[in-house]
Amino acid sequence: MNQFDVACIQLRTGNDVADNIKTVTGFIREAAAKGADYIITPETSHLMEMNSKRLFASTAHESEETAIQLFADLAAELKIWLHIGSLAIKLSDTKVANRAYVFTPEGKIAATYDKLHMFDVDLSGGESYRESKNYQPGNKAVTVDMPWGRVGLTICYDLRFPQLYRTMAQNGAGYLTVPAAFTKNTGKDHWHILLQARAIENGCFVFAPSQGGTHENGRKTYGHSLIISPWGDILAEAGEDPGIIMAKIDPALIVEARTRIAALQHDRQFDLVHEEAVLEAKAS
Fold first, then answer.
1. What are the two backbone dihedrals, phi and then psi, of residue 211, each rounded to the nearest 5 degrees?
2. Would you call 115 a catalytic residue per the annotation?
3. 64 assigned to active site
4. 4-266: which CATH number, 3.60.110.10, 3.40.50.300, 3.30.950.10, 3.20.20.70?
5. Segment (H or E) for 42
């Protein structure tokens, strides 16, 4: 397969949808001008809002969300594969979906994916998140075929569930995508390690565009968008500020990594047996 250029866009999304779309559109145009064939944006690309009332006031049902057609038209105009890491899409009066969109160079929707795993955690220092309060999780894993091979779609917290990535790799994915808004707190400890692990254990490229910096709502995200080879090498990395990282991707490296260590071929089905230990009574 031919080599291609991938671009990951790093954002610092705020509360104003129109401003956010203007910003991300500018970065998409810039990446396309630099030769990117496939452009990926982070999670929550058009809205970073944690307040429930404002979230529902700023979102729309899919049939009414103008951002979808805007990005479709942009992909067609620029003749690129465009992957919007996620948009908040209203499902009902009480739930939205955290939904990714992949657009073809003809402006068609090739795939959508709703985030499977909800970020419901209590971190140190009183930092707490309950994504399930406003968001409804998806119920299926999604891959999509592009000219360079099969791409697995995930979002942020999905990263901590390796079985999801293994399943996609075992079903033909050579590229794993992780658009994210990782917290600064967890990102500094786990972001690089987890992404490199997903690349190495599956022999896949990993593309991980992220949010970075302190947002209008006070949330702090880690940034450090990454492009990682199937051998675990970091090919490009951002800092904390918004911007673009790019790398030339050689699909042959997937075959090379999987030939050197054929872990996917060595997977086995097994039963788990729990053995109860028999403890000798102590002599009195």
1. -80, 150
2. yes
3. no
4. 3.60.110.10
5. none
